User: What shape does this take?
Amino acid sequence: MVLGRVHCAFCVILVFQTLLYCDGQFAQKNYETRGKRANESPDGKRSAPPMDTRNIRRGDTVSPLPFPTCRADNVDCLRRSLRTFFFLMDAGHFGMQPVDPVIVNSVTVSLPEEQTTFSLRRVNVTGARWTKLVERRFGLENGKAGVVFLTDLHLTGQLSMEVAGRPEPHNAFLTMDIQGAESNITYLGNIQRGRDNEDYIVIGPERIAIRNRRIPSYFLQPNSEDAYTIDEALQKKPSILDHISNEITAAIMHSVVDNFRLFSMNVPIRYYYKYYNEK
Ligand SMILES: *[C@@H]1O[C@H](CO)[C@@H](O)[C@H](O)[C@H]1NC(C)=O
Ligand SMILES: *[C@@H]1O[C@H](CO)[C@@H](O)[C@H](O)[C@H]1NC(C)=O
Assistant: This one.
């Protein structure tokens, strides 16, 4: 197979020149020296294979993944794959860490002017599994790629409010719903050929920016004076909830990226992305 005409202006030739990474498309070049790959049907589609997560070898006819390959710009296809990917994550495939439910040890937000610190501990977060893919972008600044996720989360945790000069913190149990947290994740992804002669994506450090579409809703327990005092402070400054929610969402998204980093080190690109010059 010879690389056909390239249609876009922004293309970068990467490692070993075996691949062309072009506006989000992965193209193979001189990849077929050993003849046609066995796992392709004439129309280029692969049938859904049974799962086998171990021992991925070159030339295997069985994909290690329970979802079909997607073109990198086919957001609908990627949305379906992402859903399955989250289930694989929560099942711990490839050594990935479950993200739903997940315990975030502690989150702290300080208000220097009010001399007040809020700490949320032993936060139990659920809902990450239903994260939706909003957007996929390539060719951002410095050749970075990006992804925008939308997530609804439900969490519980031990909230304490410390005010300077007051010996004891106020304590309450917080239950919070985060609806429509938008995570904008950008990273540098390089393609590298492994010793097994397969191509892998190596994900560099990520940058994550969170934006809440609305202020999270919450309630405090028990019905105590402490809870009442904390509630008053939160009502006065709803941005505290925003901060807490952003920290939690960011922590989960970092885990998701770490998981994908592990995944992409273990699974060759061809199992989840359709190549640009594939029929
Ligand atoms: C976290 O919450 C989920 C759902 O409410 C629950 O099933 C799970 O046991 C909790 N985990 C911990 C460690 O409390
Ligand atoms: C996400 O962040 C990137 C880089 O900072 C920026 O170019 C892009 O516009 C952002 N996208 C959204 C939807 O906010």
